[in-house]
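Hi everyone,

Forwarding the result from last night's run.
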Amino acid sequence: MAYDSIWLKEKQRRVRQEFPINLGLRVHRAISWIKKAELETDPDGRFIFLWIAFNACYAEYSEKSHNRPERGRLKEFFRTIDALDSTNLIYEAIWEQYSQAIRTILNNKYVFEPFWNHYNDISGHENWHETFEKAKTLSLKALKDRRTSQMLYIIFDRLYVLRNQLVHGGATYDGAINRSQVKDGAAILSHLIPLFVDIMMNHPDQQWGKPFYPVTDR
């Protein structure tokens, strides 16, 4: 089944009357950015637009969000998504369809934050290479043991570094240096983000949290 923006939009129209306001806004925004990403012909733009769609899914406004690290929210979101994925579509996507792209990302030190911390002379990261190897071992074990939420966090932890490189001006548009990780990252996101949206629509009673910048006429 192709979980593209057209399919998601058609489903949204059928079931959106069941959505609470917060979920309705999240889904509407996410699908709009997935659609935009599908129209892109370059991996840089596709990756960025898909990450915006991902933010629309999970980013939460609350009093706690100002003091809670973003990666803590990521872990919470992935645990919820995994628990609700009764047909294991996410695990199958990771294992069967994108295992090679994911392995390439996990083997790439340039999307591993401790490497850059060491490169920038931040103390405490002298043994980044040892940490890198341990992280790869952990990811393979998580995949073997079907710990999908942990695997998602490891993957998106690497993609978060790539996201920072792109949106903070740390990469050249269409640059040759980072082509493989951008292409692989965009491919992974293009499959996983629509799955997240579909799972969210299937569970309107789940507390998905208040999105940032809600629509208001105040």
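The chain has a mean pLDDT of 91.

Cheers,
N.
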